Amino acid sequence: MYTLPNTCPRCGEAIQKSGRSGLLMCGQCGFIPGITQLDAAPQAEVFAFADLGGEDADVSSPVELPMQITYRGDLTLRARSLYQDGVAAAARGAVVQALDHFFDALGIEPEFVDAHMAIARLSSDPAVQREHLDAALAYDPGNAEALRLWMLMRGELSAEGAARAARGDAPDVRTADAPVAAQSVALLCPVCSGHMTVDDDTGRTTCRFCGHVAAARERAEVGGRSLGAALIARKAEPVRWVIGERLLHCNECGAERTIPATTLSMECPFCGSNQVIETDAIGSFIQPDGLIQFAVDERFVVAALKRALDAPLEKLAGMLDDNRVSSAIIDAIYVPFWVFDVIVNLRRTVVDVRMDQIGRFGGQPVQPREETFSDALFNLPIQGIRELDEDLMERITGYDFSRVQPYEPGLLAKQPASLYDVDFDAASLSARSRASQTMRDKHQLPDTERKGSVSVFAHVQSMSFSLLLLPVFVVTMKERDGDRRAALVNGQTGAVALGKTEKRRR
User: Strand 290-291 to strand 452-479: parallel, antiparallel, or no bridges (unpaired)?
Assistant: First the structure.
């Protein structure tokens, strides 16, 4: 006679009766006595999909699926019970019966993500797998497991990489001990081999000598990358390189030189050709997705700076210190930004402050009012380079992102561009924090509607991002008393941010 164990033979935790399904099971790993096979691997590694299915998949083998339900919506008791019956059937190897249970659960609640994921794992039909992974991602875009399986099915991850990502392995971070060879493209005219530039009026890449105009690309939407998919791909990498310098070989004159890791484009000091980095020997960076072209010129910048320096507060400061500018260096450069779109789930709770200590008002129970809803924040820019002052940059980042156009190296023929040294994963943490705070501030109730204390909880559901190059003028001013002062100017709108004066060393 089979005796039910008191502790899980697989992980050692207590076996208890589930309040939802009535099954005796381990709350830690999901082991079900009499059903779960002890030699079955836990479903935390890489999904079975019957090993990505196929006609020869052995669908009679027991398959472990998570008993815990992650779906956040209201779920009927019947749909919940069908899902749990399906999990138990899959653990017995009754895959056809399990699939019936999951399909029935979806008939009750079509957005039941856990049931979609279970069908994707169990089905041996690739079309069915794709359909239900797509559905899971449509209803829950941030579902890490759905993203991982979707990437594996599309060939964007190897089986080994998917296993690494499932385990949560971090890449081995290594620092290159020598400059890494880089490949570049020279921006030369295909007709006369003259140097190319960008026409201020048309924004088109044009030859400085013969007037040849490069063919215009069709205007296209610059699509965002899924942050979840990008993080999974990062975890799947065995090694992550940190680059200090790159070795650039000029294809025109043959000169070689080392350049900083944050340089994307520059002029060859020997032959004068514009060079744009396309990749390096170890594929250590992501190419930009798009850019916003410069819309103001240096004369406009000079006038905007004069207006900013003539402001009343600046004149008041000049009474105490001679802050008049004697000279200025103005550099136009494309600065890399990670630009995020964020979907946020919010829960707002209002508690009547007139409630007594037992939650009553006027002798009647008073329940806190709670509501849940979603909102989104688009085009949240996070600076991708540490060199420039973040506080100054934040004051000028009012860009019109409807003017973004797809990236192509020829658009850098006139102004140079930098590469990022803040990677997307670090930038996403800043974006997550800023998006959450913005949404909490936005959805606080106005004073006229407040009847008590209000708390707003924000949970980021999903994020996508693009790497964009944004136009910036970097200004270094020298004052008449020898002090120096930095300023940044938005190359699209002309907005000015003045930095603090750095006193001359005596």
Answer: parallel
DSSP structural state of residue 308: H
| 67: nearest Cα among 21, 129, 132 | 21
Are the CB atoms for 118 and 65 separated by under 8 Å? yes
Q: Which helix (H) or strand (E) holds 148?
A: helix 144-153
pLDDT band at 57 (very low <50, low <70, confident <90, very high): very low
Burial of 8 (0-12, 13-18, 19+ CB in 10 A): buried
Sign of the CA dihedral running 216, 221, 227, 228: negative
C-alpha of 116 from chain center? 25
Dump pLDDT digits (tens) for 280-335: 988 889 999 999 999 999 999 999 999 998 887 766 555 556 667 888 999 999 99
Please count the helices (runs of H) and the strands (runs of E) in the chain: 12, 21
By C-alpha distance, which of 469, 408, 468, 467 is closest to 227? 467
**What is the Cα–Cα distance from 429 to 309, expressed in whole angstroms?**
36
Pairing mode, if any, of strands 265-267 and 274-280? antiparallel
Burial of residue 176 (number of CB atoms within 10 Å: 0-12, 13-18, 19+): middle
Determine the Cα–Cα distance for residues 462 and 226; give it in Å rounded to an integer.
Answer: 8
Q: How many Å apart are CA 381 and CA 415, to the nearest integer?
A: 21
Can you name the residues that pair with 249 across neighbouring β-strands?
256
- Torsion sign over Cα 118, 120, 125, 127: positive
Question: Among all chains, which residue has been given the structure tokens 């993203």?
Answer: 147
- Of the candidates 231, 52, 66, which has an alpha carbon nearest to the alpha carbon of residue 130? 52
Distance CA 98, CA 103 (A): 9
The domains of the chain, with CATH numbers, are: 40-167 (1.25.40.10), 175-287 (no CATH), 298-502 (no CATH)
Only one residue has tokens 């009679």, namely: 60
For 71-84, what is each residue's pLDDT tens digit?
887 899 999 999 99
